[in-house]
Structure formats: structure tokens, C-alpha cells
Specification:
The chain is mainly alpha-helical. The chain contains 1 helix and no strands. It has a domain of about 30 residues. The protein is rod-shaped, with a radius of gyration of 37 Å.
């Protein structure tokens, strides 16, 4: 009897099936967690981005209010002196 295995017609199909199973395993086991991580990162980034925008608007508003109050406080005595009225 012949002890050597003979190549069958199913050998190329089996190799292609193994390649397909390997590609599916990579896409499922590596791609899905990667996709979930990216979506989670985008969601977290949008929340933090909105929060950072709110903090920036509050800070800018506070800065404008403080500068306006300082200008009014400093401008009042100066204008009274220039007009000739006593302070």
C-alpha cells in the first residue's frame, strides 16, 4: 500500500476555508473590541469636549465681567477730575 497522502480536490477549498475562518476570527475577536473602544473614545471625547466648551464660555464671561467692572471703577474718578468737578 501507498503510505503517502494523495492531494485531493478539496485541499485548496480547505485552505481557503481556513483563511476565511482566520479572517473572521481576526475581525470578530480583534476588530469588534477595537470598534467598541473607538466609539467609546469618541463618546467620551464629545462629552469632555462639551464640558471643556462650557468651562471656556464661563471663564470668558467671567473675564469680560471682571474687566468691565474694573474699567467702570477706574474710569469714574478719572472722568470727574477731567470735567472739573470735585471727586
Amino acid at each position: 500500500m501507498n503510505d503517502k497522502p494523495t492531494p485531493s480536490d478539496g485541499a485548496p477549498k480547505t485552505g481557503l476555508a481556513a483563511l476565511g475562518v482566520g479572517a473572521f476570527a481576526v475581525a470578530c475577536c480583534a476588530g469588534a473590541p477595537l470598534l467598541v473602544g473607538v466609539l467609546g473614545g469618541v463618546a467620551l471625547g464629545s462629552v469632555l469636549g462639551i464640558a471643556a466648551g462650557v468651562v471656556a464660555v464661563i471663564g470668558l464671561t467671567a473675564l469680560v465681567v471682571v474687566r468691565t467692572r474694573r474699567r467702570r471703577a477706574c474710569a469714574a474718578p478719572t472722568s470727574a477730575v477731567k470735567s472739573g468737578r470735585p471727586a
